[in-house]
Amino acid sequence: MPVWDRYGLHMKSLVLLCCDLSEKALVNILKCCHSLRVLRIDGCRECLMSGRLLEDENDIKELSETFQNLRELSLGYNRYLSDALFNRLVAICSNLESLSLIGCQISFHSGLYKKFYPQNRITLPDASNSVLTFLNALHYLKQQAYKLKHLNFGYTSIDGTTLATLSALQNLKLESLILQGCYQLTIDGIKGLTQYQTCLKVLDISFCVRITDASLLRICKNLTMLETLKIKRCRAVTDIGVQYIRLLRNLRELDISEVEQLTKNCITHGLCSRCDTDTSSNTTTRNVKEKIDSENFNFRCLDDYDMENIIQKKNLQMFSANALHLHEESIERISRCFPNLKLLELGYCFNGVTDKTIQMIFKELVHLQTLKINHCDKVSDAGLTGMGAGNHETVENIEIVHEPEVTETKLRISLRSRAEEEIVRDANRKWKVMKLCENVSRPLNLKTFSGFSLIRLKYLRELDLSGCNKITDVSLKHAFAFPELRILNLSQCQQVTHIGLDYLSKNNPAIEDLNLNQCHNVSDIGISYLAQRLHRLKRLLIQGCSQLTDHTLDSIRLYCKSLHYLDTRYCLGMTVAGVESLTHLYVDWIKHIDDIVSPENEIPPPPAPPLPSLPSLP
Q1: Phi then psi dihedrals of residue 475, to 5 deg
Q2: Which one in 243, 395, 438, 572 has a CA-CA gap of 20 to 30 Å to 320?
């Protein structure tokens, strides 16, 4: 307890995640925290299992006086949370504004209510010690409605009727509502929500499989103050439903990832349609509003009108469209229509994200702070470096021409396998781009280039290129120089070697989180460059890097003073003694497949074939 006596008085936030604390220990810790504003007790089974937490009324009274400043309470993923425990915990938080019950086993069935509360009357002494019911939570929500602004019922069995009941509570004016993974949610709940909670700014209905275009229409038509909308993996939504999102004038963040039925039209004829038209006519805006307010509303009629006054495309700052069936025109439209994006996620958009479209992103989205194009395997050094052109902004037309990949003359028959042919093509591609990068400084050759480099995104803080296996040391030398880059994911970029890591560590000193999993050509000397130069490095993942040995661990032990987490699983060249020598940090280490204790752990892929010998970079 000396730690809590020393720091508890000034602590603003306390997060207890899957902690094995006794009831007494938890109460004693809470009594030391007089300035808390955020309290999270998630997945803490030991202190709730017995049901005796805060049994003493004196503890409740003392903590209720201590927690006058507490505004946010999370009790997520606690399977032993009951009505009685819930009532005791909220009793010490009289000024609560945010409540999260994500992942809790809440009962919404009226038959169970009658069993435990036959008189439909709930008070603190009469609350059940066995179950957690929505009826009991609703009793609290009614009392706290005038203060509550944020609710999280994600991954619960809340249904449409229950959501409608919750939304209609008197004095309840929610600003954010998280309903992620609520599979029972239907349009009836959306109707009630959009009728009463018109002040919502944040709505997350990701993974709600029963959300349809009709539900999305009501959301976009009535919740006009929305700033964040997430419909990730709402598989019943189609291109028509996404068009309605244009009605949200104040939208700042949008997530439409992994929606199976969406096609390229959701971008070209939906979100980004008519983005280049002039919108100065007030008469047009008035006519559009009349169409929206009509009972027989049909969004297709809006294609005849100018939509720029309905959705302010320049307001959108965060856009996620992972794993969608997009094409190159879709990515180009996104780049043109949302110029102020700070976050862009296009992972697994295999056909849309190419060297050509990545150039458009570099040209238009200069304010990006987070870019994730993981597993877009058509992106290569040519796209990231702009074919060596850097950022020549005078060129208007961006075009990357791919020469025919012919490795043998027509008079010869190649005896190579497909894998060997691909290795040779990659080597040739790398050599050509490297030569172009070297020639960029020559004045006579500047007109040859027409691209934009990744360096143009000077505000970049997070970059995910995992699975982009065509990226090599050429990109790390000529396209990576960011003073604020903190998170970098290069996992499965198997052509990265110690040469590229040398330049990476020199030009990106602020990196704190680096993922090099399954980069099979990374060697001990490459890790030594990182350890000596990246003084802020806190997390390093080198899982499956088969060339690494205990020399890597020696470098980490000598130089990585800020490192907190190291993943060395399946690094076959490391020994138990070497790993155990790193006593100052947490090391996740499994050497052999036989050592795996959980079937959920990944089996390491076979090592990649060695790269063909190439001249070293200058």
Answers
A1: -65, -40
A2: 395
* Chain Cα centroid distance, residue 573: 33
Q: Measure Cα distances from 295 to 193, 207, 224, 307, 378 in Å.
A: 19, 29, 17, 20, 47
Q: Buried b / exposed e across 248-270, counting CB within 10 Å, b at 16+? A: beebbbbbbbbbebbbbbbbbbb
527: Cβ contacts below 8 Å, ≥ 6 apart: 501, 542, 548, 552, 555, 556
Cα gap 367→365, rounded to integer Å? 6
Structure tokens at 163: 């959501």
* Residue 511 structure tokens: 């990196």
The helix or strand, by DSSP H or E, that contains position 208, with its residue range, turns out to be: none
Contact between residue 53 and residue 23 where contact means Cβ atoms under 8 Å apart: yes
Q: Is 317 within 8 Å of 252 (Cβ atoms)?
A: yes
Angle, CA of 202, 208 and 211, to the nearest 5°: 90
Contact 32, 1 (CB under 8 A): yes
DSSP letters along 333-393, please?
HHHHH-TT-SEEE-TT-TTT--HHHHHHHHHH-TT-SEEE-TT-TT-BHHHHHTTTT-B-T
According to the model, what pLDDT value does residue 580 have? 86
Residue 386: its pLDDT value, please?
86
Kindly report, residue by residue over 466-508, the tens digit of the pLDDT.
Answer: 999 999 999 999 999 999 999 999 999 999 999 999 999 999 9
d(CA 202, CA 204): 7
Q: What is the pTM of this model?
A: 0.84
> What's the CA gap between 466 and 487, in Å, rounded?
12
What tokens were used for 109?
């069935």
Q: Tell me how far the alpha carbon of residue 561 is from its chain's centroid.
A: 28
Question: How far is it, in rounded angstroms, from Cα 289 to Cα 243?
Answer: 16
Which two tokens mark 257?
């990832």
Q: Which residue has the tokens 């009594």?
A: 31
Closest CA to 156 of 130, 129, 175, 137: 137
Helix axes 355-364, 328-337, angle to 10 degrees: 0
Q: What is the mean pLDDT of residues 165-173?
A: 96
Question: Residue 587 forms beta bridges with which residues?
Answer: 566
Q: What is the CA radius of gyration of the chain?
A: 28
Contact in structure between 204 and 224 (CB atoms under 8 Å): no
Q: How many CB atoms lie within 10 A of CB 413?
A: 6
Check if the beta carbon of residue 5 is closer than 8 Å to that of residue 32: yes
Q: What is the tens place of the pLDDT at every residue in 396-425?
A: 343 444 444 444 444 565 666 766 666 666
Range from 24-38, 132-146, 242-256, 297-311 carrying the lowest mean pLDDT: 297-311
Buried b (16+ CB within 10 A) or exposed e, 187-222: bebbbbbbebbeebbbbbbbbbebbbbebbbbbbbb
Helix (H, G, I), strand (E, B) or coil at 152: strand
CA 418-422-423 angle, 5° bins: 120
The SS3 call for residue 302 is helix
Q: Which amino acid is at 476?
A: L
Provide the pLDDT confidence category of residue 110 given band limits of 50, 70 and 90: confident
How many residues does the structure list for the chain?
A: 618
Collapsed DSSP state (helix, strand, coil) of residue 540? strand
Q: Quick check: 460 and 485 in contact, CB under 8 A?
A: yes
Copy the structure tokens of residue 534.
């990246």
Helix (H, G, I), strand (E, B) or coil at 14: strand
